[in-house]
Structure formats: structure tokens, C-alpha cells
Specification:
Order of helices and strands: HHHHHHHHHHHHHHHHHHHHHHHHHH
Number of strands: 0
Helix content: over 70%
Number of domains: 1
Radius of gyration: 28 Å
Structural class: mainly alpha
Strand content: under 5%
Shape: globular
């Protein structure tokens, strides 16, 4: 071999070496260490998810202890005849319980016990769908320190909110006017006999694995007519005191509930922060590219249009397994933030998760004596979510609306991060409370105030969409092509942002002044003063 040939072969070998994947260039020990590191990170994710689920379970128990046996009195009141009030109770109840599956199971039980009828319970089931999305929105706050990640994460979390709110806004009036959910579900259970006499059973799922840990902290009784904090954990003929921490302390229900609630919130926040950090470490290199190609991939060309539907089925099946749509969507939110999942991918997964979460209600229905009515409300939940899927996903034009709204919220919160807190409090606390108070004032007051308000919000949204589209912008009147005719405080968050920044500046200035005074003027020393005298 001549020197030129030898040089050519060396160049070819060099080219082959450089074309190898990055992980193939590493030494054997380095590759082994990377495999061990990835395995440890995966284990850490599962551990953090486990403690996250346990903290949600503890939060639910804490809220049950605080609320006591007063929950049923809310549902038995005459205000439940108003469907909008029922919707808001479903929203706020699920926000407190942090689980639409739990809320739906409670509603099914209330219907089976004839505390509620099916017609009254349908709006509450719709509200449960909205309330469950608060968890993923709260999870997005864990990435608030990185602007681009926070924008993507908040959009990924609120796409669930937007879908649920839009579905309720469209289908609740349809149900009030036509009663199609009540009629269709009644038709489906018309041949079902109420001959089930089985007692209520604990559904298998996440509680099976979290129960050993949560039972060490607190055990709650299912009998709400007596004390909520369980005292006897023995068999029917053998009395044995409960060995959980708060049960042994024998505090009052409210004191134990408040302590458990604080503990669960601290645990929840720590898990979320650590989960985001571990996910960022795990998916920051070539693994993220692999997942992007597999998770965001399309089916072969003739069947490409079915990709979203397959994703929805996967989301539904996974949610059936873990029995919690909020935990499923909360797991996806950080992945959207770090760029592993796209918003178009998470949308059908979220819709599938909404369908999967109805499985708990259906299973709970079979544990009640009045099988026909309990199964009917469970099927109402399934039909409502299925109607929402058919309404917003198959038609590409309609599909863009919840995605566009979520992206807009992501951009706004990325520019004005304080707005994320305003959105959470306003959307899941202030707005439901305000509407509930209007419902309390009477149906006429609610429709006279709420009707124009909802119509105005809808007009503003559609005008904004038209303003961002060159084709649609030409159809708008001249004065509506921009919002410049409105004062700044009505068309921008900039004045509020300046006000918040000025308040923060004043507080920071006062803090610096106090630290300056402390550092330059030492504390009074009585001994030294006496010696000088």
C-alpha cells in the first residue's frame, strides 16, 4: 500500500469514526456508567412519582378531615336545582379533592343513595372534569424559572383547562335545553335491574401501592356520620386501635386534617421541583432526541390521520391503569416544558385521559344497590367526555381553538409570570365562587349577569383569533382590526406589570435600607456603655 493509499484509508476510518453515534464513541466504562446513571434517574422518577401520589392521597384525607361530615349538606340544598351551581360545586369539590375520579365516585354514591337525582348530578360531573385540570396547571409552576420551558409547560397544562371549559360552555346549554345526556344514558341502562346487593369495595389501583405508606400517617373512616378520624382498625369482633401517627395522637378531626394538609402540600412541592430537575437531567442529551422521534412520530402514510386517535387510546388505557387523569396529565406537563413532547401530541393524550378517568365511576356504580341510576350517571360522564372529543378533535379547524388558547396563555405567563398565579386563583377559585354566589341570588340574576359576560368573553376570543389571521382580519370592521381604541389598562397587562414591579422595587429598597442600618449601626451594648461612663 502506497503512502497516498494509506492516507486515504486513514481519512475513511476517521470519517467512519466521526459518523458514529455519540454514545458509540465513548469508552466501555463510560457507557456502563451512563447506563447506571440513567437507571438511577429512572428509579428517582418513579420514587418521586410515588411520593407525589402519596402526597395527593394525604391531601385528600386532610381535606376530608377538615370538611367533616358537612359535605353532604351542600348537595342536599335546594340550590342544586340550578345546573350552573352544580357545575361550580363540581369544580370546587374536585379542586379540593385533587381527583376527578374521587369526585365522580362520590357523585355516583350520592345518586345511588338518592341524595341527588341524575339530572342534578350531570352538571357536577361536568365540573369535576374542569377541577381535575388544576393539578397539571400547578405542576407547570415548577418550571417558572426558565422562561421558554415555562411557556411550553404552561401551554401544555392549560390545554386541558381550555378543552374542559370550552366543552362545558358548549354542552351544558345543550344539555339544559335538550337533556340528551340524560335521555341517552337512560336508554343505555333501561334494561339494567337494580339487583346488586354488594357492599362498596375499595377499587384497585394506585391506592393499593400508596396505602402502606399513607396508613402509617393517617387513616380516615368511610363512615361520615361519626368521627372521620378512624379509631378502631380491628376486625368486627376484635377491637384494635389504629397505629397511624395522627390516629395515635388522638387530636380533633380539624387539627389532624390541617396538619396532614400542610404536610402533604410541602411533600407535593418538593416532589414537583425534584421531578422537573431529574427529568431535565435525563432528557437533556441524546435520549430526548430518541423520545421525540418515537413519541412524536406518525403512523405510516396511509394511516397517518389515525395517529391522534391511537394516542388518545393510549392515554385512556394508561389512565384506566393508574385511575387518575390529573396524575397522568401532570406527568406529561414537565415533558412538554423540556421539549420532549409537543402540544399537538399531548392534546389527544389528554382527551384520552379524560375518557379513561370515567372507568372509576363505572366500577363504583357496580358496587351500589341502585345499579340503574348509579350506572346512568357514570355513563353520563363517559358520554360527556366522548361528546367533547367528537366536538373538538376530529375537525382540524375546531381542534385549533383550544390549542391556540393554551399557546396564548403560555406566552402571556412567560412574559408576565405573576399572571400564572392570577390565572390559577381566578380560574379555579374566584370565578367558580362568584358564579356560585350569583346562582345563590337566583336563576334570573345568574342569567342576566353571567349571560352577557360569557358572550363578551366569546366575542373577545374570536376577535383576537381573527386579528391574528390575515384572511379573517379583512372581514373585521376597521375599529376592530386592532384594540388600539381601548385604553392601555383594558388591552394590555403592561400597566399592571409596571405597578407590580414598582411595588417590588419599593419593598426591595426598604429591605436594603434595613440591612444597611443593621450593618452600619451595631446593637446597643450595655456593658461597653457603662464602662465608658
Amino acid at each position: 500500500m502506497t503512502s497516498s493509499e494509506h492516507a486515504d484509508s486513514s481519512i475513511k476510518d476517521l470519517d467512519l469514526e466521526s459518523s458514529k453515534p455519540e454514545h458509540c464513541k465513548l469508552g466501555k466504562k463510560t457507557r456502563v456508567w451512563q447506563g447506571v446513571r440513567i437507571a438511577l434517574q429512572l428509579c428517582a422518577i418513579f420514587v418521586l412519582l410515588y411520593f407525589f401520589v402519596c402526597s395527593v392521597d394525604l391531601m385528600s384525607n386532610g381535606l376530608k378531615l377538615i370538611m367533616g361530615s358537612s359535605a353532604n349538606s351542600v348537595f342536599e340544598s335546594d340550590i342544586m336545582r340550578n345546573p350552573v351551581a352544580g357545575l361550580m360545586i363540581g369544580v370546587m369539590g374536585t379542586v379540593l379533592l385533587q381527583s376527578s375520579s374521587t369526585s365522580t365516585a362520590i357523585i355516583v354514591t350520592l345518586v345511588a343513595s338518592k341524595t341527588l337525582n341524575v339530572k342534578q348530578a350531570i352538571p357536577m360531573v361536568m365540573g369535576a372534569n374542569i377541577g381535575t385540570s388544576v393539578t397539571s396547571t400547578f405542576v407547570a409552576m415548577g418550571q417558572i424559572n426558565v422562561r421558554k420551558e415555562f411557556e411550553r409547560a404552561f401551554a401544555g397544562a392549560t390545554v386541558h383547562d381550555m378543552f374542559n371549559w370550552l366543552t362545558v360552555i358548549v354542552l351544558l346549554p345543550v344539555e339544559i335545553c335538550t337533556g340528551y345526556l340524560l335521555w341517552l344514558s337512560g336508554l343505555m341502562v333501561s334494561n339494567v335491574k337494580s339487583d346488586s346487593s354488594e357492599e362498596s369495595v375499595d377499587l384497585p389501583g394506585l391506592k393499593t401501592i400508596t396505602k402502606p405508606l399513607t396508613d402509617l400517617i393517617v387513616i380516615v373512616s368511610s363512615n361520615t356520620s361519626s368521627r372521620i378520624l378512624k379509631s378502631d382498625c380491628g376486625e368486627k369482633q376484635h377491637h384494635e386501635p389504629c397505629k397511624a401517627l395522627f390516629n395515635l395522637l388522638n387530636w380533633s378531626d380539624s387539627a389532624s386534617g390541617a396538619s396532614v394538609l400542610v404536610l402533604s402540600i410541602v411533600c407535593l412541592c418538593v416532589c414537583l421541583v425534584l421531578l422537573v430537575k431529574v427529568l431535565r437531567l435525563l432528557f437533556s442529551h441524546y435520549i430526548s432526541d430518541i423520545i421525540k422521534k418515537t413519541v412524536n412520530s406518525q403512523l405510516p402514510k396511509p394511516f397517518g390521520f389515525l395517529t391522534g386517535y391511537v394516542a388518545a387510546i393510549i392515554g385512556a388505557l394508561l389512565t384506566v391503569v393508574i385511575q387518575s387523569s390529573s396524575i397522568f396529565t401532570s406527568t406529561l406537563t414537565p415533558l412538554v416544558g423540556i421539549g420532549v413532547l409537543e402540544l399537538e401530541t399531548i392534546f389527544p393524550l389528554t382527551l384520552g385521559s379524560n375518557l379513561g378517568t370515567t372507568g372509576t365511576g363505572i366500577l363504583a356504580a357496580f358496587a351500589n344497590e341502585n345499579l340503574n341510576v348509579s350506572l346512568q350517571i357514570a355513563l353520563c360522564h363517559l358520554l360527556f367526555n366522548l361528546s367533547g372529543f367528537i366536538l373538538w378533535y376530529p375537525v382540524p379547524l375546531l381542534r385549533k381553538l383550544p390549542l391556540w388558547l393554551a399557546r396564548q396563555l403560555g406566552r402571556i405567563t412567560a412574559d408576565y409570570r405573576w399572571f400564572a398565579l392570577v390565572y390559577l386563583i381566578g380560574m379555579f377559585l374566584i370565578a367558580p365562587s362568584f358564579v356560585f354566589l350569583l346562582s345563590w341570588a337566583g336563576t334570573l340574576t345568574l342569567y342576566c349577569v353571567g349571560g352577557p359576560l360569557v358572550a363578551s368573553i366569546a366575542v373577545i376570543i374570536f376577535v383576537n383569533i381573527a386579528q391574528n389571521s390575515e384572511k379573517s382580519k379583512g372581514y373585521l370592521p376597521t375599529f376592530l382590526k386592532t384594540w388600539d381604541f381601548l385604553p392601555m389598562w383594558l388591552r394590555s397587562l403592561e400597566p399592571y406589570d409596571k405597578m407590580i414591579k414598582s411595588i417590588k422595587h419599593v419593598l426591595k429598597k426598604e429591605s436594603n435600607k434595613e440591612s444597611f442600618m443593621t450593618s452600619n449601626f451595631p446593637a446597643y451594648d450595655k456593658t461597653s456603655c457603662d464602662e465608658n461612663l
